[in-house]
Amino acid sequence: MKITRYLLLAGLVFLYFPLLVLVIYSFNESRLVTIWTEFSVKWYLELLEDRQLMDAFFLSLQIACSTAFMSVLLGTIAAYVLVKLGRFPGQTLFSSMIIAPLVMPEVITGLSLLLLFVGLGNWLGWPASRGAMTIWIAHVTFSVAFVTIVITSRLREMDSSLEEAAMDLGATPLKVFFVITLPLISPALISGWLLAFTLSLDDLVIASFVSGPGSSTLPMVIYSSVRLGVSPKINALATIFVGLILVGSFVFWWSMQRWARYSAAKTPGQQ
Amino acid sequence: MNDAEVQYAVEVVNLSKHFDDVAAVDQVDLKINKGEIFALLGGSGCGKTTLLRMLAGFEKPSLGDIKINGVSVLNSPPYQRPVNMMFQSYALFPHMTVEQNIAFGLKQDKLPAAQIVARVTEVLGLVQMEKFRSRKPAQLSGGQQQRVALARSLAKKPALLLLDEPMGALDKKLRMQMQLELANIIESVGVTCVMVTHDQEEAMTMADRIAIMDQGRIMQVGQPREIYEFPNSKLTAEFIGSINLFKAVVTGGELTCAELPGQVVAGEANAVFEGPCYVALRPEKIRLDAARNLDATNCAAGKVNDIAYLGSHNVIHVRLDAGAGQGKIVQVHVSNFARHATQTFDFEQPVVLSWDRDAVVLIKADQP
User: Fold this and answer.
1) Which of A165, A168, A269 is facing B139, going by the closest CB pair?
2) Chain B residues with CB inside 8 Å of A175's CB?
3) Domain positions in chain A
4) Nearest CA-CA distance, residue B174 and chain A, Å
5) Fewest C-beta in 10 Å: which of A137, B170, B173, B216?
6) Would you say the pTM of this structure is higher than 0.95?
7) What pLDDT digit, counting tens, does each position of B80-131 carry?
8) Which fold has domain A50-229?
9) Residue A144 contacts residue A241 (beta carbons within 8 Å)
10) How far is it, in rounded angstroms, from Cα B285 to Cα B266?
11) Which residues of A touch B132 (CB under 8 A)?
12) Does the distance separating the beta carbons of A175 and B91 come in below 8 Å?
């Protein structure tokens, strides 16, 4: 009993102590990240002045958002086709192609996409140069795999008589999809969106392959600047991220709780 | 001239459904009257659910036709058929309130809002659920969910109401109560109803007529009483209630039963035929007496083999004595008239079985 408490504590410290140190040192006055002098927010202010970091930050945000939306759109269509439309020729091939990027090493995905973009550029003249567009395409390619899996499992566990009931009551298949299916799988859509967003924001390897001049994502900028020595500005930036993630996951958890209240647990009604 | 055709709410003509090479429904013909509650009764895999799903439009028949009020609906998708279904799981939309669930079908018809509200209130009153209109389905008990599901399927005033195992999700006690209540509501609305069930009690309680299905075919159609008292095959006789069967044969109008001693005389109500058959006796139609002299007809001697006390009646198994049918076990129901039974039976007590000629049912044997 006692020992498990300590083990839990040790585990939590192992996981979160580095993050805590990072947050604390982002308020450090010194320009040496390892030596504490006094409290200050000057690195936050300098961060705002740093055009390169801020540009990369907004570029990453932009790519992550658009990747998330596109992945959810494509992932929903793919999952619906796989689960609802019954067997069709090439179904196994299709489903394994969709989840292939899950097991593919990132380096190979990145390299093959680079070769594709270069080849296409030479052959069709598009994409003329690599940049945000090619990063977005690359990110969608591998995020769709994750999103499809999340939505597929939700669709599978959904009672198909709900859709039949809606159709029985006079709704056309298209209407059934938007009024019944979509609202019922919306938790999976949200978690799929967040997953794709995180994957895209996080990606360094693939983005390095397919980005071009003037379109460096945040992980790329951080990685290259760290090689020249860690600036406390990075700590400040990371702290902002941790804060955003905390708020984001709390909102997600809270909305899931609300959802669970009327879809999962059945509470017998009172007279 | 058309009157004769349109007198049926539903006509199923030579309907078949094959899954790969297996016939789930095999050449079914049915005529269902207007305002009737009709039950499809059978074990699992007998094709009753497939037949129901074809009526709703979720399965496409391989052969045959379905007419509702005289019009073929074969080419209409589910959302265009004047048919509504109450699903076994109720299939209430979890993200909508009771009110929104019931209004769903009416909204698809693009009715004016005021009319929708009025109709929702009307059907909620019908199932006595007015108080729950703004609840979510998860906040209702099983019985309440069933009422809402019924209200939703009645809201559009369908020409045909389908019930898929309506009591399947309820516990036993609630079942009995809801069976009568559901039948009363459906009868008061006057809608034609086809229900599917594997529970004979449920079918007999709720339905005006029952069709017994086996391996995709309809074995017998009739009122509950007809099916119970005059089963037309061994299968229906055994499916509904319990029954004692004895092998027999009719030759030249004479009935000889090899498995019963003495002569068996059947009542006039039985069909006249020749060939191998069964003498069928319902357990509650056999009299049981302590040892006495045997009658010449419709009588047999035996010993008590087993006794089960079930409260409302005793089930007594009697082993027939030497002679024809020796050792055969006959089931007899003895109802419990008085608290202090005047006549009790013991194991191995000699007894005499006797029955009226009208109790005897002759069932033609299908295979020799």
Assistant:
1) A269
2) 108
3) 1-40+234-271, 50-229
4) 14
5) B173
6) no
7) 999 999 999 999 999 999 999 999 999 999 999 999 999 999 999 999 999 9
8) MetI-like fold (1.10.3720)
9) no
10) 13
11) 269
12) no
- For B187, the token pair is 């009868």
Residue B229, both tokens: 């008292």
Nearest CB to B79; choose among A161, A172, A184 = A172
Q: Are B9 and B68 in contact (CB under 8 A)?
A: yes
Give the H/E segment covering residue B186: helix B172-189
CA distance, residue A265 to nearest chain B CA (Å): 7
| Complex confidence, ipTM | 0.83
* CB A151 within 8 Å of CB A157: no
The CA distance from A260 to the nearest CA of chain B, in Å, is 10
Q: Residue B242: which of B202, B184, B283 has the closest Cα?
A: B283
| Cβ <8 Å between B152 and A169 | yes
pLDDT digits (tens, 9 = 90+) for B272-289: 788 888 889 999 999 888
Number of residues in chain B:
368
Q: Which helix (H) or strand (E) holds A246?
A: helix A232-263
Helices (H) and strands (E) in chain B, counts: 9, 19
Burial of B367 (0-12, 13-18, 19+ CB in 10 A): exposed
Residue B139 DSSP symbol:
G
Does any CB of chain B come closer than 8 Å to the CB of residue A86? Answer: no
Structure tokens belonging to residue A229 = 């020595």
Alpha-carbon span A240 to A64, nearest angstrom:
17
